[in-house]
Structure formats: C-alpha cells, structure tokens
What does this fold into?
Amino acid sequence: MSETLEQAADLHGPDNPLLRAWQTPFETPPFDEIAPEHFLPAFEQAFADHAAEIAAIVNDPSAPDFHNTITALERSGRLLAKVSSVFYDLVSAHSNPALLEIDKEISLRMARHWNPIGMNAVLFGRIVMLHDNRTTLNLTGEQMRLLERTYTRFHRAGAGLDDAAKARMATINEHLAHLGTTFSHHLLGDEQEWFLELGEGDREGLSDSFIAAAKAAAEERGMAGKAIVTLSRSSVEPFLKSSARRDLREKAYKAFAARGDNGNANDNNASIVEILTLRQEAAQLLGYPTFAAYRLDDSMAKTPEAVRNLLERVWKPARTRALADRDALQALVAEDGGNFALAPWDWRFYAEKLRQAKANFDDASIKPYLSLDHMIEAAFDCATRLFGVTFTERKDIPAWHPDVRVWEVKDSAGQHKALFYGDYFARPSKRSGAWMTSLRDQQKLDGEIAPLIINVCNFAKGAEGQPSLLSPDDARTLFHEFGHALHGMMSNVTYPSLSGTSVFTDFVELPSQLYEHWQEQPQVLRQFARHYQTGEPLPDDLLKRFLDARKFNQGFATVEFVSSALIDLEFHSQPASVSRDVRAFERTELEKIGMPAEISLRHRPQQFGHIFSGDHYAAGYYSYMWSEVMDADAFGAFEEAGDIFDPKVARRLLDDIYSSGGSRDPEEAYVAFRGRDPEPDALLRRRGLLEATEPA
Ligand SMILES: [Zn+2]
It folds into this structure.
C-alpha cells in the first residue's frame, strides 16, 4: 500500500509528463513518455486547478464585468483541456484495457466536476447580470457572441433551476456520462471480437488490393499469413461490394448489422432505453416537451419540425429512386441466373455490377490511381491554392502510434500556423469511423496559440511494401476530415471557446462537406490521381466514367442516411416509454416511412455511436444534410466565378467560414460569404435526385 501511495505522490508532481511543461518542438504532448497511470493523477490536479479558478471568479468581491467573469472563464481550465485532449485522443485512436478502465472512471468524475460549475448560482448570477446589460458594455462582435453563448450554455446546463431540480439534473448527467461510455466500449468490444477468415477458396470477386488489405488486417491481429474481413466499415463495405460468395456476404453483413445487438455482454439495447429516458427527463426539467425540442432550440434548424421538413423533402425522391434501382438490381439477379429475392447483403454487390454495366466503372479500376499519399498531396494542394498555407512533414514530433504522420503548416507569409497529425490506418485499438479532433485549439487571448489538429481514419493498410489504395469513398472521407481540420487550423479568433469547430452541429459539416467538392474536380484529379506503379495520370476516359458514376446509387446512399436521421429524430421526439423495445421501435418507424426492405439503416440504433456514445449528435444526425444544403450551394460560388480556386471567393470563404469559428452567427456568416441564403434544391441536384418523382 505504501508503494502505491508513494507512486501516486510522485505522479502528482513533475514526474508526471502530463503535469510538466512540454519541452518538445511546438510544445506538443510527449506521447512517448505518457503512460496510462499518468492520467488519473493529472486529471485530479486539473480538476482541482479548474475548481480553484472558478471559485476565484465566484468569490471575486468586485462587481461583475466582462473581464473578471467572461474572460476569466475563458482562461480557466487550461490544464483540464490539455489532459483531456490527450486522453480522449488515445481512448479513441489507440486504446488499451487500462485506458478504457480509466475512461469509465473519468467520464463519471468529469460529470461530477462540471455539474457544480454549470449549475453554480452565483456564477450564473454574474453572467445573467452581464447578459441583461450586454448592449451597454461596449463589446466587440466576438465578445458579444461569446457573452451570448456563455449565457446560453449555462442556462441550458440548468444553472437557472431550483436546488431540487439541479440535484436531479446532476444525477442524470452522471448516469448519462456512464451510459455513453458503456455504449462506445460495447461497440468497440463487438468490433474487436469478430472477424471472417477468407480461405483461398473464399476470395472470388475480391481484388488484389482487397486481399492485401485483408492480409494486413490479419497481421495486425497476430494472424500473419491469413486474410480476414473485419467489422471496420472500410473492410465490410468493399467486401459486400465485390465478394461473389453470397453466403459470406450474408455472414459479414449480419455481423456488421448486429454490432451491439448480440445479446452478449456488449449488448446496447438496455443502455439505449436508459439514455432516452434520462434525456427526456432532463429536457423536461429545463422546460422542453422533448429532448429533440431542447436539443434543436440551440441549432440553426431551431425546431424538430424544421428538421423533419428537410428530411421528408429529401426522403421522397430518394426512396423513389431507390425503389427503381431495386427493381433494376432484381432484374440483374435474374439475368445472372439467380433465383432469390434481393437481400440487404446483395445490394452493394449488384449495384456495383449495374454500375459496371451502365457506367462501365468499378471502384477497383480507379483505386490504383487513388493512393493515400497522392490524395493527401491533393488535399494539401487545394488548401495551398485556396488559403495560401503550406505543409512540411516533420519527423521530430512524438505521436501515439508509429503510423501517425505529422506536418507543420505555415501561412502564406511563412509563419507557423498549426501542426497537422494524420492517423490513417485501421487497427484493433482504434474505434471505427473517421474524425477530426485537436490536441490544442487556436486562440489569442494571451498571445497567439497555434492549434494541434488531428485527422483519424480507418483506411486499409497496403500490403508489405505497397501503398494504401483508397476507394472513391475513402478519398472523399479524407477530404471531408481534412475540411474539418482546416476549420480548426485556419481558425482566427481570440477566445478559446469560440475556436475552430466550436459551432452549431448543423453548421460544423459545412467546411468538411464543402471541401469534398474539390476532391472530385477534374482539374484536381488530373494532377494528383496518378497510377501508384507507373505514375501515369488518370486516363480521361476513366475520369469521365468515374465522375458519371458519382451520381450512381444515390437513392441507396440517401435512403440509408435519411432513415437514420429520421429514426434519431423519432427516438428523441416520442415519449421514451414508446421505445422500451428498441428493436420493435426500429421496425415500426421503418415501416412508417416505407423503408425499402433491401436497404438497412446506415447506423442501427445499437451501433449508433453518433447519438448514443454521447449527446453531441443526439437529435442531430440530420446535421450532415442541413450542412449539405449549404455546401452544395456554396461550391456554386466558385463555379459561378469560373475558377474553383478563385482568389476573391476563396478569401471570403476563409474570412466568413473557415477562420471565424463560433465568433459569428452561422446564418449571418453564410450570407456574408454567399451574398444570399442557400438555395435548397442544390442538394437534390448534386445527388441527382431533383427529377425523381413519387411512383403511382
Ligand atoms: Zn464531418
């Protein structure tokens, strides 16, 4: 016991790398020195520091002013932000059992730490006083926005409730924190356990690059020499697209769709019921009829009705297109001599066949031109042309895994702007999906702070000595996440809580989805899509077929997305008692919208980490589509200028969207960029769904 105590005592001091000043270049986290046992003591110190900073604001005898209250709040919690960002990066991108154990503990302690701050009556009293008098305070635009956002944040956390309600709210928050963590651990558990071994006889239809990736995945799991399909999306989806073995497709599909719903120790059904019940109670304590009403009150969309309107507008033409596609696929099955009804595990396979037949294009033909390195180069080059930033790889920055690469980003004047970390390959220690996050956000409250921005993806690694070859979807994901990264790196605000991606969830996908547009420009592809062996550029004919094929299968893609967004909205709009049987609720809702039986949700509830691992996208999955209304319209500004890198338009894009973070109202920022509101049909046109009509 004394040994433990001694160890703990040491780790509360400078022996703990998380509590030392970092001597690395650009003061980046010294990942090579950080071990799981450093986190608890560091968090304890960070909680204590932050609590003391808050107490100093609360106990300040002078009358509240912007500086001693709002600015002081912005200055508080630096150590906590520093420790948390490193911790959550590791938990998501490179976890281990020790970290996951700490995560359980920390999520609870985090809720316990924030509850008394978010609900502090004296602190809230100071904020209310300033907010009431905000027009007389002589604030800059950014300061005004900060004051409003701070007031709203405290109000929505329950700072204005009576003591009994606050106590209940605190308990709810703790439960929710625990449940969200459990949900994501379960999902990771199911994903780590399953694999499908592909013997020599099981590989019909699979490309060489797929087999190479399947071998790399096996090696990653200590099964060198074998080839496996895993439950990572970038393994399952290409397998479903190309495997000619219907029995194996069914196996892989069913395992993928059953994640979190297997009735084992990782089952998420019970957690979902509890989460929904608690969210509803929290919303009602705050005076809202439903969680969706609460959640959307603080968004661009504002109400559940506005969200439903958008989704239904898209749903109808998408469903119509999907049903027509289904008939075409069924005909193809028959033509092929198949005597079965198209099933969800057949869709991608026959859609790919149909695409080959109609557009004379398949993913495998373009993959050799889309090597990861070339696509990274393309993403960087577009940023250079648009925003003048340049990228230089650095080998001296410590990272959390040997596969992580780091680049220094400089502005057009050659000044240091940011560091960019790219962590691209799937591995068992990484959760599924792709995301952007940061180790440090840009701000200039007390001097310029340059951001440390991360992109994490789950691309399949190339085989020994071979580059990783991306599918068109992967390449699009790379640009998407890099768009988020630019939002973080180009940020130019004073206050940390308004930095970069600290914007409404239904606005945050604008910079990312807009950036995807450059990936599919002929000008960009001609330059960067070069064959990984011969270096020859993408042939014009293949380029044309690739671009034509983009609109292919959009009915399917839109249906699987919109159905997920609708079910998210329904989970959070209907009384929680209705969804006690999660599977029955899913079935009923899908029937209600006439979901084609051959398509499933992009995320079934039991694996819908967006909405159940935390509440960030809860009643908010629609955000991608809300942002798409803007991105489809926004790219038009470049097309109208006749140059996809038009300097004037790019300048406005930087000023109004990519650098302004949360310092402006998003609607106003969009209009400033575009000169008008977004034109909603642009989205349907981009997806090729404008002409689809309801079937008789
Ligand atoms: Zn995104």
About this structure: The two ends are 76 Å apart (CA to CA). The first helix runs from residue 2 to 11. The pocket of zinc ion is lined by residues 480, 484, 509, 512 (CB under 6 Å).
